[in-house]
Amino acid sequence: MPVGTVGSVKAVHVSELKEDIGAQIILGNTYHLYLRPGLDILQQAGGLHRFNSWNKPMLTDSGGFQVFSLTENRKLSEEGAEFQSHIDGSRHFFTPEKAVDIQRIIGADIMMAFDECTPGDADYDYAKKSLDLTERWLDRCLARFRETECPYGHRQALFPIVQGCVYPDLRRRAAENVAAKGADGNAIGGLAVGEPTEKMYEMVELVNEILPKDKPRYLMGVGKPENILEAIERGVDMFDCIMPTRNGRNGQIFTKQGVMNMRNERWKNDFSPIEEDGASFVDTLYSKAYLRHLINVNEILGLQIASIHNLAFYIWLVQEARKHIIAGDFSEWKPMILQNVTRRL
Amino acid sequence: MPVGTVGSVKAVHVSELKEDIGAQIILGNTYHLYLRPGLDILQQAGGLHRFNSWNKPMLTDSGGFQVFSLTENRKLSEEGAEFQSHIDGSRHFFTPEKAVDIQRIIGADIMMAFDECTPGDADYDYAKKSLDLTERWLDRCLARFRETECPYGHRQALFPIVQGCVYPDLRRRAAENVAAKGADGNAIGGLAVGEPTEKMYEMVELVNEILPKDKPRYLMGVGKPENILEAIERGVDMFDCIMPTRNGRNGQIFTKQGVMNMRNERWKNDFSPIEEDGASFVDTLYSKAYLRHLINVNEILGLQIASIHNLAFYIWLVQEARKHIIAGDFSEWKPMILQNVTRRL
């Protein structure tokens, strides 16, 4: 899922997302959308789909992650989280019920439960207390979800989130609790937040042995191409990450042959296409040297090209993964493609 | 001509310029391109057309205007202009010959003569001395132009520029001198640089009585929709201006019904299309409220939408002007359309 933080996937038209990149679903950040444009506007618009003209599936996070990572003067309590806006310092209070209410108003097809995203280096006691809270909050989210409806008449799903940090017994307990809720899909949170990568894979594997296989399993905030393929091998179906767009804006270009840093002198007079057999129209329309120049002089077009290219690459990668799963040769394909795409060019 | 300062029309793909906006020709700034990416890169690329993938006509200015407006520690002499780069303070020296040589390397289809753009408030003595210099520089440009060739094999034209500030006798003398050169096209410079608008129209009218009517007449750096239509009525065929893109990035949107400032609260919950019968795909894809939100939160997509929209509007406006010239009712159409497009919404 390309990430559309404040209601737009940065530097990319919705028509490009659909027709050039082939995205099937995008993500919006509840925290950002709640602050700007705000719920009044979104409600009057008839929800985010109508507001930003994205007429395909959309998912919103619960806002929890941003509350815990972006805001100041946070106060966490049983009831919820009080915080100050990173924009204007105004005070707000999110509860599990409010996170559901807000996401009802945003109107995304998939809403996420409000949880505490436990830091990757939390000790066992903290992680356990945090999970206890997340589980009580999940029940409150689900209660609110059952009592309410989408104000625009379409169906909305609510995905619970498995926490438990890097502790196998906590993750197992969390996955069992989540699986028992019978939701339309389930998420794995609190990974790729500072823990060793091997721990992440271990947790994904363990959790996915418990989560139902016939419902989408969503690994939140991941990640690099290698993380995505490793997680797919362990049963994950959905991902979101700002990496293709944010790293693109910083000049990092992912290709089938490896990763290019466009700020590197090396591309200065390489007039070959960005990617000869790339997945987007920008790949043969523009050259490496031109993209390097644009990034180098901070031209907006450079951000556009890098963003479209990287998103198209990510979508291509997971489409290929799907093909190889169906063909039954994923395990042979994965090391080969990883050797290529993770190479530094 | 949409302006592509450093080799890209800011926030717009070349495919959008061609297919959505319908631009026939774009402009590049010699001063900026000379500094970045630099002549080495442009020469190795095979010229700017190949570098930025714009395979339609292109015009470059001579660099003079930016030398006189952007740089520090300028020293103007008979020989040329010495200046320090606004990027890194490095010292450079432009002469009429060098301006031609640089534009040969950039490879634009239309090159401009190196001149001094006399300030709009210059006194008569200054304006006369400045014109004397511009005329001597023009002869040196033309000599160099005749001695050299396009390094990429295609044809390049060189347009002389009429200066003379707001003084009728200087403008007349300058126009006669320029007309006598028999160039492929001719330009009017040194207007829209601080003089009263009525003076600008007066000078355009006077100069266009002298410049040949069967060659394109190009009014440099103009302007607002009303300036363009007034100048067209006085015989001008070509324009360039950063207004549609720069003002667009600041939230000013030109439409057939008037001008909108998207930062205005008024658009906050106006969910109607940006322009119902607008000239670009963005006009009905996105709403006013959404564009306002994007501009408001500094999302790159807002800059893209505003730039495409405004460029498409400008191209639509001059295409309409052409239709009405051909239909013979330009003078009746002009006040009507101006009343609409200059309205503040």
Automatic annotation (TrEMBL), chains A, B:
Q: In which pathway is this protein known to take part?
A: tRNA modification; tRNA-queuosine biosynthesis
Question: Under which EC number(s) is this enzyme classified?
Answer: 2.4.2.29
* GO terms for biological process, alphabetical: tRNA queuosine(34) biosynthetic process
**Catalytic site positions:** 61, 240
- Residue ranges of the region described as RNA binding: 221-227, 245-249
Where, by residue number, does substrate bind?
61-65, 115, 163, 190
For this protein, the record's HAMAP family field holds: Q_tRNA_Tgt
Cross-referenced Gene3D superfamilies, in alphabetical order?
Answer: Queuine tRNA-ribosyltransferase-like (3.20.20.105)
- Which InterPro entries does this one have? ArchSynthase1/Queuine_TRR, TGT, TGT-like_sf, tRNA_ribo_trans-like
Tell me the enzyme class. transferase
Please report the name of this protein according to its UniProt entry.
Answer: Queuine tRNA-ribosyltransferase
Reactions it catalyzes? 7-aminomethyl-7-carbaguanine + guanosine(34) in tRNA = 7-aminomethyl-7-carbaguanosine(34) in tRNA + guanine
Which Gene Ontology MF annotations are present? tRNA-guanosine(34) queuine transglycosylase activity
Q: Which residues form the tRNA-guanine(15) transglycosylase-like domain?
A: 1-340
**Organism name:** Proteiniphilum saccharofermentans
Which GO cellular component terms, listed alphabetically, does the Swiss-Prot or TrEMBL entry include? Answer: cytosol
Family to which the UniProt record says this protein belongs: Belongs to the queuine tRNA-ribosyltransferase family.
